[in-house]
Amino acid sequence: MSDSGLTGRDATAADVSSEAPPPDAPTVLELDGVSKSFGDEAVIDDLSLSVREGEILTLLGPSGCGKTTTLRLVAGLDRPDAGTVRLHGETVSGPASHVPPEDRGVGVVFQEFALFPHLTAAENVGFGLQDRPAAERETRVAELLDLVGLADRGDAHPDELSGGQQQRVALARAVAPEPAVVLLDEPFSNLDVDLRVEMREEVRRILKTAGVTAVSVTHDQEEALSISDRVAVVNDGRVEQSGAPESVFQQPESRFVAGFLGHAAFLPGRVVGGEVRTGLGPVDRARVDGLTGAYDRVDVDILVRPDDVRAVPDGDAPDGRVRARRYLGPTVLYEVELEDGTAVECMHNHDESLALGEPVEVVLRADHDLAWFPADQRE
Amino acid sequence: MATRSRRGGEEDGFGVAATVTSGVVAALLLVPVAYLVAQAASVGLGASVAILTRPDTVQVLVNSVALVTVVTAASVAVGVPLAYLTVRTDLPYRRATTILVSLPLVVPSYIGAFAFVAAFGPRGALLRLLAPLGVERLPEIYGFGGAALVLALYTYPYVYITTRAALRALDARLVDAARTLGEGPVSAFRRVTWPRVRPAVAAGSLLVALYALADFGTPAIMQFDAFTRVIYVDFTAFRQNRAALLSLQLLAATLLILGLESMVRNDDPVYAGAGSRSGDRVRLGPWRWPAFVGALAVPVLALGVPLGVLLTWFVRESATAGGTLATGPGVVLNSVSVAAAAALVAVLVGVPVAYASATRDSRLAGLFERVSYLGYAVPGVVLGLALVYLGVNALGPVYPTIALLVVAYVVRFLPQAVGSVRAAVLQVDPALPEAARTLGRSSVGAFRSVTLPLVAPGVAGGAALVFLTTMKELPATLLLRPAGFSTLVTRVWTAHSDGYFGAAVVPALVLLVVSGLSMLVIISREGYDVR
């Protein structure tokens, strides 16, 4: 796939979202070739990453890919085996040095919030402000409780607060000492599904209002795409791709990224002149992102997402047959098996009904460029 | 996430310090035992064999084995049927019965023994009562029979409690299923209930065996030559060699039972999963009330005799103007202050050990924690003797002093402090101290501001337990107390050996209350419920 498109898109994405930091904002956090093993198990392998001031970056990846470990290394709660971690250009973890967590200026919102149960909400928020004069501390705590919408709950103990309120306190506590960067470990995994959507927007608002740089980790792609300025997809302890949510979703650089972000089918085809011949019939080569004339007579796989295609009953010249149907509530996902055995998922409205085994034509209806992968890189 | 299970991270300087501290504690704990071994080794191989094969020495082993066997068998014979009656049948007043049946555990066995001697002994209350009727002799209370009776009466609750827990965890529908498959009630018990309950019975029996083997007060008061009594008598008669050799023998026997117990406990599936309590209770029919009376007979005997004896003496003594009831405040103060000192030291020492073993993912910390349980394995009389050797040989000026006595208490009851604190530390989410670290606290600061306030109730519970159990400790107190230093316990002891029971009434009553309180602490901590 084209490698020029990404940086260009990145810049565009930054322009579109006025909240995202400018691309020339200074780098706050940098991980350079970081590795970490527990016993024989390499959890992080040569991971590099940088975060700019004011940015919200989300590390997205499957369970066990090393996301949480990455956060612990940044916070100084664990020590990397190799590589360096820099904050504001200063090495905090490296071969020769290790700054303990209390001296780093890194705030953490823990997965289960880790609020101190013996302290009130206000005391939790003020916990990291012990060095400041009492008056200043009080003002700062009030300010933050107000920011997270809990101005009247300062005296409540954590067990008297709802899940969403606890998360607000945890966020306020992490932000209070004005850390260089705030880390959020699966911040929404402990909340009910309904609350999750609400808190995503709320957390983004709070982080943006407070003007803090943040790194969050999650395995939930929807969450990652909705709260972040930038997403870094992590697999097997490495960053596979990073960029604005739209660009990572639409132009995945690897099959893993394509498959991890939403449903993905890989449609085999052969480039012949100005078109790609596929099981759905010919696709105009110009619709495939970065597939230039240089790739003539090459076998490729085109990324097709369920909302890119729809199945239409066609008994005369079908592309394939309906093999399975999955109700997802408002939509229905039909799995169509093409003549060549490829499975393609098509998203339909819940009121459109196709019978199992029905011969269908699959119509490409995407209005964006399609991504592709060389066929010889199939896994 | 994979890393969440790893407690403490890698930057916990306080945890490292705690591990080092607990290593030092573990080493110190082993010193007295090392002195005991050295004392025994100094006897020489030939002399040791000669002493150990002497008929009177062999007799001690035989006596102890017989005592342990009979007490254990009796505890099973009493505890298992009582557990079955109170869990699986329609016995009346089951909840009250359960409490009553468990209660003898509260009575220190030496107070029980003391009361039985006072009641049934040659000059006891019962004989006085019966004398006008021409009764001149009662069956001998001293010796094997009395010792076995008293020990069984105060230890059967161990079997009762473990069996009861297993029966409650047992899904009663299994028995129903067996009944529908054609088994009668008796054969359903034998083929379904018993195999599931057996490990719990075994666990309880081993606790009883351990208690019977290590108990000092009962054989001493009943003048029965079991290990503990003979070791004490040898010590007071300056027969150091045999005392040391018998101590090692007793220690080996204790370790054997402990080993068996840990084996039983490891593959014990009974406590897993709370069973359903559906299914019908067994109907006792016309046997309902006779069974009730039978079930009460045992605890009534175990509780009634000491309470009856003590209250009788209390009334009699208070009638005598200026009687012996007045236990000097000095004695109470002595008891309280050594117990408080022991509790304080045990907690100070126990917190690092418990913290390190609960938070550090290290074998070393685990090993040190296990060493801290030494006090469970070493019978009190053996530990007392070991500290005597240590005191005589290495600590001239410290022995015999109150400091050494406190050390003995700490070693004996450290497991209670460690266990209590460790359970509390395990309750603390490891992310909490980490959160404190990211908010600017050092590892010591995080422990002080977050972990410590959260484990404070566990620390207090551990301290209370050590305090209360120290108050009623007998053998080490007798061996190590400085001349002229009396406590509530030694008052009971001397009253018995002087044959003047009246002087023991108030101390014994206080000790009963103390003992009851310690049981309350255990129950409130472990959530033992009596439904």
Gist of the model:
Chain A is an alpha+beta fold. Helix content of chain A is 24%, strand content 33%.
Q: What would you say this structure looks like, in words?
A:
The complex is a heterodimer of chains A (about 375) and B (about 525). Chain A has about 375 residues and is α+β, with helices and mostly antiparallel strands. Chain A has 2 domains: about 5-105 and about 180-260, Rossmann fold, CATH 3.40.50.300; about 265-375, Beta Barrel (OB fold (Dihydrolipoamide Acetyltransferase, E2P)). Helices cover about 25% and strands about 35% of the residues of chain A. In chain A, the strands form 4 sheets. In chain A, strands 6-7-8-3-9-10 form a 6-stranded mixed beta sheet, with helices on both faces. In chain A, strand 1 (about 25-40) and strand 2 form a beta hairpin. Chain A is elongated, with a radius of gyration of 24 Å. Chain B has 23 helices and no strands. Chain B is mostly helical and about 525 residues long. Helix content of chain B is about 75%, strand content about 0%. The model of chain B is unreliable at about 1-10 and about 265-275 (pLDDT under 50). In chain B, helix 14 (about 330-360) crosses helix 18 and helix 19 packs antiparallel against helix 20. Chains A and B meet through helix 2 and strand 6 of A and helix 19 and helix 20 of B.
Widest beta sheet: strand line-up of chain A:
6-7-8-3-9-10
Q: Total strand count of chain A, please? A: 20
The gross shape of chain B turns out to be globular
Helix content of chain A: 10-25%
CATH architecture of the largest domain in chain B: Orthogonal Bundle
**Which of globular, elongated, flat, extended, rod-shaped describes the shape of chain A?**
elongated
Q: Segments of chain A where pLDDT lies below 50 for 5+ residues?
A: 1-18
Biggest interface between protein chains, with counts per chain?
A-B, 39 and 26 residues
Annotated CATH architecture of the largest domain in chain A = 3-Layer(aba) Sandwich
Mean pLDDT of chain A: 85
Count structural domains of chain B: 2
Termini Cα gap of chain B: 39 Å
CATH superfamily of the largest domain in chain B: MetI-like
- Tell me about the largest β-sheet of chain A: 6 strands, mixed
* Order of helix and strand elements from N to C terminus of chain B: HHHHHHHHHHHHHHHHHHHHHHH
Q: Treating each run of at least 4 consecutive H or I residues as one helix, how many helices of chain B?
A: 23
CATH class of the largest domain in chain B: Mainly Alpha
